[in-house]
Specification:
homodimer; alpha/beta; Molybdenum Cofactor Biosythetic Enzyme, Chain A; 4 domains; 6-stranded mixed sheet; 8 helices; 29% strand; metal-binding (chains A, B); MoeA_linker/N (chains A, B); Molybdopterin molybdenumtransferase (chains A, B)
């Protein structure tokens, strides 16, 4: 007897799920390991930038009032009484008609208020003293970068939950974060089920296929910012499977199972959820692939029952697991970025349900083009390698023509988006 | 006296540099660690996909000839003599007017040549035997996925040098790669120079700034696919600096120095190159920032002398170091992807040289929009955190208006592009 399940919409599934999202705790890690992690607290400027008035050029620091009468017709000569390398401070007084050679980035001497660029100064020596000739006047502040003009001490430079890219690393270093507060990665257990699955290193056998979902989901979890823990694959016996799920659940923040969520005779997951006393949030979603995606909750901990079909498993992870991982990491934009693209090939299949199609993203004259992978069936496997977007084709249509405008999910993007933007039609 | 240097164009600099690119060797790593690495050899299908004729649906495997006369008016009854779960093989003979229940993905029995979907079969029991009624005929091959129809054994599924994303991981698992051949990461030494630099955990001092380049470049190298080795920062003494460069050079595939390449009195790098006997490929590039970028070669090993200015250092790494790293990894698309975008804000500065401007990439109605970071100067520091493209503004212009079409380098993209595309105007 086939169990009847009532499909719900993708957005309703997400809303039911997000009720159980949780946020992770902080840990401190060395800055050298921070790339690709997520900030565990606000990044705050601990000092003004620049920290002091400084010269943005190689040149001469002067007192601008000395240059008041300088012109092409009436050049003036200023005496060079010293030099300031980057990192040095010049503490001697600078008198009338005196100047100091200054390097890019060096701190302005207290008595000076303008910088003459090197190319405007004609240097010469006289009586064993150094001078330069100047043919124009300068105002106070000319060519000076002022303390705090880039950023003020106390400014929030990046929010908690920000993805740490190389630019963020530069800021962390600038503001002295030798150790960086990041959110601990959520641990996500993976259990593969399916009597057709071979271990990756087993010889091929009639009727069987190798388990690819376990490895694919590990990579997807890593991309999303989580820590995958693989518990192995289980097939035949309900009791073994049940024990594995129960044990794994105690050790992880979230648990993913692949396979076993259909209504076939070998699909144990519904039984396991029942035996665990888990509350099923939904067990059918009006989408393809992945309609049998089942998500349950027990004591506030989420169990993701992803389909055993690799495409469905892939889509289910990006739609349902990724926002839970990113919310754990305190991101305010935990959803996959959703944008508009031009369809790069016909998609003639009628579409009663929302469909997510793996596709290649390219660009043409500044526009996004998304071309479904594997339109040519002989190429369906290899095209998965380059797929970097999911095209979302809403249900209730009779297919799409090349050139149509479609929505795409940018699965390689790390910035993400809010639920509001994700859910926008 | 200011040394005269002759600037060369960015593309000429790249061409001089790429002459010394080298390719790395292979290593085997567990598939669980392969995400984000680069394939060290072609990924080849070691078997047909599907491996056997299989059912794409839950249903009944039949001999199509038995259904020849079935219609709404003359339904037929087929006897169900067994079932085939995914992963099982049904080896008994199937006689006239007999069928077998078959699960999604299961291997077709030898005697059958079509699959009836579950919803078209009206099941019933009679005399303790199972039957279903069928009201239409099927052709041989209906609803069967044939051996090899997705991909043929021996097909190249991904080229050497491909970035391993989760889709590639799925393919590797499908084809039994428990260990994955990847190219060893190139090791890239980093030495920071500059008498103005404080260690990251030193208290602030007048005239000094914290060393951010060392950490930023480590993150950029990691993003590009290399392995950074930080040798520390050196400032005051030529001899110390020289020894450090010399020692580091022996241990790494490439060496980056930050700072010390200007013509200032404290810029030792030109002297160090000379003392090493290194050949300078160029020491001035017609670009901003980063005009003092200097690249040298000794015994075929590249020394990247990046500017000490953080923006210039960042740009120099993406333009010059990244393609060397990606070529080492056997990528056929080692350059940063270059595309067209709409300028999201005015850039009023006249532009005698090619200028690379860090910017935020957004999307609007399927178009790329690039908005320069830090147009508002008070925001210049924090905007670095979100910058994910470099806008390329060609030299010889008087500024750009919002809405202009510009070229952008997609620094977060992992696919890359060829030199031919990178160099296209």
């Amino acid at each position: 007897m086939v169990e009847r399940r009532k499909p719900i919409k993708v957005n309703e599934a997400i809303e039911r799920l997000m009720v159980y999202s949780v946020k992770g705790n902080q840990e401190m890690i060395p800055i050298e390991q921070s790339y690709g992690r997520f900030l565990g607290e606000e990044l705050i400027a601990d000092h003004d930038v620049p920290l002091f008035d400084r010269s943005p050029y190689d040149g001469f620091a002067i007192r601008s009032r000395d240059s008041k009468n300088a012109s092409r017709e009436t050049p003036i000569n200023l005496e060079v009484i010293g030099e300031i390398g980057a990192g040095s401070v010049f503490e001697e007084p600078i008198g009338e008609m005196q100047a100091v050679r200054i390097m890019t980035g060096a701190q302005m001497p207290e008595d000076c208020d303008a910088v003459v660029m090197l190319e405007l100064a004609k240097e010469f020596e006289e009586d064993e003293k150094s001078y330069f000739q100047l043919k124009r006047s300068f105002h106070s502040g000319d060519n000076v970068s002022f303390k705090g003009e880039d950023t003020r001490e106390g400014t929030v430079l990046a929010k908690k939950g920000t993805y740490i890219n190389p630019g963020v690393v530069a800021l962390l270093a600038t503001f002295g974060y030798k150790h960086v507060p990041v959110t601990k990665k959520p641990t996500i257990g993976i259990i593969a089920t399916g009597s057709e699955l071979l271990q990756i290193d087993e010889p091929l056998q009639p009727g069987k296929i190798r388990n690819s979902n376990a490895y694919m989901t590990q990579a997807q979890i890593e991309r999303a910012g989580g820590q995958a823990i693989y518990y192995g694959q289980f097939s035949d016996q309900f009791s073994v499977c049940f024990e594995q799920v129960k044990n794994a659940l105690e050790k992880v923040d979230f648990l993913i199972t692949t396979g076993g969520v259909s209504v076939g005779d070998y699909d144990y997951l519904p039984e396991i959820y029942e035996a665990l006393g888990a509350k099923i949030l939904f067990n059918k979603v009006g989408m393809r692939p992945g309609s049998v995606t089942t998500i349950a909750e027990i004591n506030g901990k989420l169990l993701f029952g992803l389909s055993g079909n690799p495409s469905a498993c892939y889509v289910g992870l990006e739609l349902f697991v990724r926002p839970i991982i990113r919310t754990f990491l305190h991101s305010s934009q935990p959803f996959v970025k959703k944008e508009v693209a031009v369809l790069g090939g016909d998609f003639p299949k009628p579409n009663p349900f929302d469909r997510f199609v793996r596709a290649d993203l390219t660009y043409q004259d500044g526009k996004l083009i998304a071309t479904p992978s594997g339109l040519d069936k002989s190429n369906v496997v290899s095209s998965l390698a380059s797929a970097n977007v999911l095209i979302l084709l809403p249900g209730g249509t009779r297919g799409y023509q090349k050139g149509s405008e479609v929505k795409v999910l940018l699965i390689e993007d790390q910035m993400g988006t809010t639920y509001e933007n994700f859910n926008r039609k």
